[in-house]
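User: I'm curious whether this sequence folds into something compact or stays loose and floppy. Could you predict its structure so I can see for myself?
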Amino acid sequence: MQPLGPDRDQSRHTRTALVVSVLVAVTVMTLDAAGGSSSPVEPLRAGAAEVFGPIELGADAVVRPVTGAVSLLTEMRELRSDNTALADENAAMRAELATERVDRNRLAEYDALAGVTDGTGFELVPARVVAVGPAQAFARTVTISAGTADGVRADLTVVNGAGLVGRVLSTSRHTATVLLAVDAGSVIGGRLDRSMELGFLRGNGSLGADGLLTLNLVDPDAVPVEGDTIVTWGSRGGSPYVAGVPVGSVQGVQASAGDQSVSATVEPFVDMSALDLVGVVTGAAKARPGPAAGGAP
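Assistant: Here's the prediction. I'll summarize afterward.
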């Protein structure tokens, strides 16, 4: 038999120690289970609690602020995220409210323009005002989003739901320049609705509340009355102005002592400084049925 080496001797001592430890553990558990509160192990348990209890409390005191700080940071991130979402939502709601007003106004303009078509039979090409500015030698013009590709040509009447806007001055394929009725170079044939007297309307070149027209009647003895409505008397072939388009109402009457003539100040029905949707008249009004030949029976 070979003598035991150091490694085999160490292994035998390890196994012996393991067996003894297991036996001690089994014995302690048996005594603890059998003894209950009077277990001989209870003093050991109490001592361990006294030794390790403060350590556990200290560790908890150290860890609790760290976990609390982590929780606070998480809540702050969530609050910031919620605030950002609320701010975006509020901005979207404000934008929606603003565009809702514009959409409402445009819908009303569409309805009014449709009313012009239904009431007069005019064939209209709808367009939006996309620019305001001078053209050639004229000062009061707008550019609209319709041109020759849409059937628009020069010297066509332009209206909106309120009345006369002006006439087409020039065109490109997709846009057209419109001379406004209030331009100082604009001359429009008008008719008083009450007396049917004819006259000429000239603009003063201003926009907004200051944009007015001056009416001079053909008959120097005819006198317009404040509140009279003026409509276009029309042109041959409906160019540049078709007949019967409301222009404005008489706001005041002035008499000239020099030549004894009478003129009237006319306020346009159309607000030229707030133009958006307009219609270009590309077709004449439908013929209205008249009395039968030979008169009424």
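Summary: The mean pLDDT is 77. The chain has two helices and twelve strands.
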